[in-house]
Amino acid sequence: MPLITVLILSLLGLVTANCQCGYQLTINNSSTPSIFTDLIETDFLHLTNISKDTDWRRQEFPVTAAAGRGPYGMNFTIQNVISNPILNATNWTGPGEFGGDPGLQLIVDSGIPENGYVQVAEMDSAREDMLWGTYRTAMKLSLVPGTCSAFFWEIDMEFLSSQFIPENNTYPVNLVLQSEQSVRAGYNAAATGNYVVANLPFDPTDGFHEYRIDFVPGNVLYYADGYLLAKMNTTAVPTSPGHMILTQWSNGNPLWSFGPPTSEATITVSYVKAYFNSSDTVRQKDWALRCTDSSAPGAICMIPDQLGPPDPSTNVSSGNSSASTYFFSNEKNMTVNQTIYHKNGITGINELNAYSSSLLTLMLLSSLVAILL
Ligand SMILES: *[C@@H]1O[C@H](CO)[C@@H](O)[C@H](O)[C@H]1NC(C)=O
Ligand SMILES: *[C@@H]1O[C@H](CO)[C@@H](O)[C@H](O)[C@H]1NC(C)=O
Ligand SMILES: *[C@@H]1O[C@H](CO)[C@@H](O)[C@H](O)[C@H]1NC(C)=O
Ligand SMILES: *[C@@H]1O[C@H](CO)[C@@H](O)[C@H](O)[C@H]1NC(C)=O
Ligand SMILES: *[C@@H]1O[C@H](CO)[C@@H](O)[C@H](O)[C@H]1NC(C)=O
Ligand SMILES: *[C@@H]1O[C@H](CO)[C@@H](O)[C@H](O)[C@H]1NC(C)=O
Ligand SMILES: *[C@@H]1O[C@H](CO)[C@@H](O)[C@H](O)[C@H]1NC(C)=O
Ligand SMILES: *[C@@H]1O[C@H](CO)[C@@H](O)[C@H](O)[C@H]1NC(C)=O
Ligand SMILES: *[C@@H]1O[C@H](CO)[C@@H](O)[C@H](O)[C@H]1NC(C)=O
Ligand SMILES: *[C@@H]1O[C@H](CO)[C@@H](O)[C@H](O)[C@H]1NC(C)=O
Ligand SMILES: *[C@@H]1O[C@H](CO)[C@@H](O)[C@H](O)[C@H]1NC(C)=O
Ligand SMILES: *[C@@H]1O[C@H](CO)[C@@H](O)[C@H](O)[C@H]1NC(C)=O
Predict the structure, then answer these.
(1) What sign does the dihedral 238-243-246-252 (CA atoms) show?
(2) Which domain of life, per UniProt (predicted)?
(3) Residue 370 falls inside a structural domain
(4) 192 and 220 Cβ atoms separated by less than 8 Å
(5) What angle do CA 138, 298, 285 make, to 5 degrees?
(6) Nearest residue CA, atom 1 of ligand 3?
(7) Tens-level pLDDT at each residue, the chain (373 residues)
(8) Structurally, how many domains does the chain consist of?
């Protein structure tokens, strides 16, 4: 290979960001992997203040008892969504700043509410353009009976603490295809179709575990710590974009959430990782602009599987932690042109400029070569 070609290639290589064409995952052992163009990653173990993270919106709205179809109303309040980052910000283990499990807390208050409204918690992603993707969160659930904890995006993983039976090691999860509206309306998911109850292969209250939904046209797969819980292949699989929701609520409905809990119920979230395609034409255009050659080395990055619990309480003494999981956004150059709060890659929005300046360098070099020849 002529020296000048090597020089040109290495110049290009230096400015080519990784993952510019997307993040790849093989879903359902398909012969062709799925590629997702966008990502949102949030490390709640190290996020100091949720009110500052523009990727997330703590929810504030009341639901009347009648609208919620329960004996009680619910008040979704930002006071019940609290950051409790790891005290020692340089490591992945140890207690939170306010003691207890580190991470983002979603709280349901205890007791019969005087005003008829149970104080509950919900946080939504700011982006609402999320379509096909793999959606993941690590959470430690509460053993206090009488709440419903959920991670969803229309497609839903719901945990009813009243269904947890430690005595016989039974920890069900309700896997549901239903709309956010029907959840807020307190509908009993069991009454809808497209509903599977699976047993978790672990105690979800003993530590942090990853819950995951893979979603491509016509197909949904549910996982826990990389263990396949269920697959759904029905016409009920949504086809429209949505947003992510993390919530813990209770309205006393004896068919679903039960409660309100007799003591405060806290669930803790350590991360959310979402790799998805955007329904937003601006984001689609951004992808087309940055992905000039999907066969270039590093243009498509593999999304790793989380196999096993990502738990900050493990391995404190051995000096490492299973909570230190992989984040593309912790690498220098793998989230270029993404929209994640405070982390869009070291070359960030200037990547295209960097590319143009390298083209300029190339042109200068070529003219130099031309002159020399
Ligand atoms: C993919 O294939 C492996 C090996 O046969 C199997 O264990 C796994 O459950 C399959 N995954 C899905 C999602 O069906
Ligand atoms: C996501 O979008 C990219 C770019 O348009 C496309 O190549 C890819 O096939 C899409 N992924 C899925 C699962 O549809
Ligand atoms: C988080 O930031 C908000 C807005 O700046 C501030 O009002 C609040 O006190 C902060 N909370 C903590 C725990 O630092
Ligand atoms: C909801 O919570 C907010 C903030 O704590 C409070 O000001 C409001 O009175 C509550 N509303 C109800 C109906 O409980
Ligand atoms: C935080 O942890 C690091 C090791 O990860 C240690 O060197 C440092 O002293 C700790 N800081 C505090 C305040 O304990
Ligand atoms: C666990 O307890 C529940 C409720 O008592 C019962 O329905 C279920 O059969 C038990 N499961 C096992 C494996 O014993
Ligand atoms: C089931 O999945 C296949 C792709 O694996 C898809 O073509 C088909 O439409 C799906 N079926 C339904 C009923 O959505
Ligand atoms: C997964 O693959 C199997 C075999 O290719 C197919 O029958 C099924 O519809 C696919 N999708 C789901 C969600 O199971
Ligand atoms: C993490 O920080 C805590 C508190 O400072 C410290 O006790 C612990 O040893 C640190 N762990 C590691 C693995 O560095
Ligand atoms: C804890 O650390 C040991 C040694 O570093 C390792 O073998 C083990 O797999 C770790 N366990 C977890 C749960 O990360
Ligand atoms: C991206 O950064 C990693 C280190 O974080 C480095 O190994 C890799 O070579 C870089 N890739 C490019 C294309 O700059
Ligand atoms: C992505 O790149 C486009 C130009 O191609 C730019 O207009 C847009 O602001 C960038 N977005 C982010 C989040 O960096």
Answers:
(1) negative
(2) Eukaryota
(3) no
(4) no
(5) 80
(6) 49
(7) 344 443 444 444 444 459 999 999 999 999 999 999 999 999 999 999 999 999 999 999 999 999 988 999 999 999 999 999 999 998 899 899 999 999 999 999 999 999 999 999 999 999 999 999 999 999 999 999 999 999 987 788 999 999 999 999 999 999 988 655 555 555 565 555 578 899 999 999 999 999 999 999 989 999 999 999 999 887 778 888 999 999 999 999 998 899 999 999 999 999 999 999 999 999 999 999 999 999 999 999 999 999 999 998 876 666 678 999 999 999 988 999 999 998 876 544 333 333 333 333 333 334 433 433 3
(8) 1
Write the single-letter amino acid at 370: A
Q: What gap in Å lies between CA 198 and CA 136, rounded to an integer?
A: 18
Q: Residue 91 belongs to what domain range? A: 18-344
Residue 356 in any domain: the answer is no
SS3 53: coil
Q: Is the CB of 228 under 6 A from ligand 12?
A: no
CATH number for the domain harbouring residue 154:
2.60.120.200
Asked if residue 373 is part of any domain, the answer here is no
Is residue 61 within 6 Å of ligand 4 at its C-beta? no
Is there an atom of ligand 4 within 6 Å of 171 CB?
no
Ligand nearest to the CA of 127: 12
In a domain? residue 212: yes
Contact 204, 141 (CB under 8 A): yes
Pairing relation of β-strands 265-278 and 130-140? antiparallel
Which residues make Cβ contacts (< 8 Å) with residue 288, sequence separation at least 6?
Answer: none
